[in-house]
Amino acid sequence: MNKQKYGFPQHATSVIDLLETVKQKKQKDIDWRSGKAFCLIYYPGNEREENIKKVFDQYYADSALNPTATPSLAELETETVSMCADLFHGDEQVCGNITTGGTESIILAIKTARDWARKNKPNITQPHMVVPDSVHPAFFKAFHYLNIDYTTVKTGSDYRADVAAMEKAIASNTILLVGSAPSYPYGMIDPIEEIAALAKRKNLLCHVDACVGGFILPFIKELGYPIPRFDFEVDGVTSLSADIHKYGYSPKGASVVLYRTHELRKFQFTLYTKWSGGVYGSPTITGTRSGANIAAAWAAINTIGKDGYLEMAKATMETTERIKQAVEQSEELELMGKNDMCIVAFKSDKIDVYMLADELNKKGWHFERQQSPPSLHFTVNYIHKNAVDEFLADLKQAVADVREKRMAQMGNKLQSAMVKGLSSILPEGTIARLQKNSKSDLNNENTAAMYGMLGALSGTDDLDKIVLDFLDTIYTAKN
Ligand SMILES: Cc1ncc(COP(=O)(O)O)c(C=O)c1O
Fold this sequence. Notes:
Layout: H1 15-26, H2 46-58, H3 71-87, E1 95-99, H4 102-120, E2 128-132, H5 138-146, E3 149-153, H6 163-169, E4 174-180, H7 192-201, E5 205-209, H8 217-222, E6 239-242, E7 255-259, H9 262-265, E8 270-272, E9 280-282, H10 291-329, E10 334-335, E11 343-347, H11 353-362, E12 368-370, E13 375-379, H12 388-404, H13 406-422, H14 430-437, H15 439-442, H16 448-456, H17 461-474
Parallel strand pairs: 2-3, 2-4, 4-5, 5-6
Antiparallel strand pairs: 1-7, 6-7, 8-9, 10-11, 11-13, 12-13
């Protein structure tokens, strides 16, 4: 029997050594502090970070599991939820909880709808939901966990939910419709007023996923950008998710899920009152909940305030406009639709955008590669105001470099087409081996062919196997 790669440590390691180890390990990570990551991180600047951390530290070890033991955390949570409900035009009935992130908020909203239907639509034995195909995968995770049937409806040519098609997808067991404000891939706000009106007409619930947009849309609207109504001011919206750890600029681990009424929220809670350990009631999915994350979410909102969010939203939108303009002026690149906020996604029918991605990665930039069609995705936030000049210069250069490599690009296309044809005999663990054997692939350099291949396999069982293998490999300890 082979032993684990790491034995459990017998002795303490000094913090100096630990910090040195972390410093070394972190060198492999994206350099987001310099504004080079257009994904994953939302950063409000050093001074705000320090303020939020001071409050975080006060609750470093505290648990929010039992609100009678830590009433201060219950207060910080309810105050935060109330401030968010106010931001999203909720009246005093609107209530909710802080969760660990968008995914937890969404799973809870789906569970709430399911249990609401169990009580209010007892004839439905197998609930069904209708979502645009642009919704975040967190919904599919929720459907999988909670055994919900669903129909995904193709978005229109403007990449927004097609409400007429959603209506057609409503079945006798449908209980909930979903719209995003905005959806992640292209940053488009779905026609929430129409979706909510349809839901109301059919006596269904309506969830708005404002995870990525919730904490910036109200501010850019106040700055004069044309943002449609998307929250509780829209009649028929029954629940909403919004992530404080995105444009709310709190540390990771904080989102809110809100409901139109207390009656609806009660379906979110889990009770077990027969336990020998005592009466157990829990508002969200996790048992023990980090006090520090709740306190930090409260601190972020209070230390930044509306003035701060407006200032950051203004800078973010100005940066976004500059990137959009550069894309529009480029002969090679094409924006994916008329985006509502500060997500920029572009494609190209002149150059291979995955090759462009590799070139940009080599220059230290990080962002997402999307598929169907291949496109690149940049989530702009406050930190990018300092990096945008360098980014635009690098983008121009990278486009020029890729143009030069047209022949190689042809090769990639050929490779993708071949892989598609040969997908049934693709050996298991392909990606895992690519990751293991090739340093450049690990660094996200020269991955155009691999992404082309993944795009060609999109939605197939082969790709499922590859991704399972990849996850298994990446979450296994290595020396
Ligand atoms: C629209 C949308 N919904 C849900 C999520 C999931 O959020 P989280 O990663 O915090 O679970 C995201 C994340 O990017 C998102 O953009």
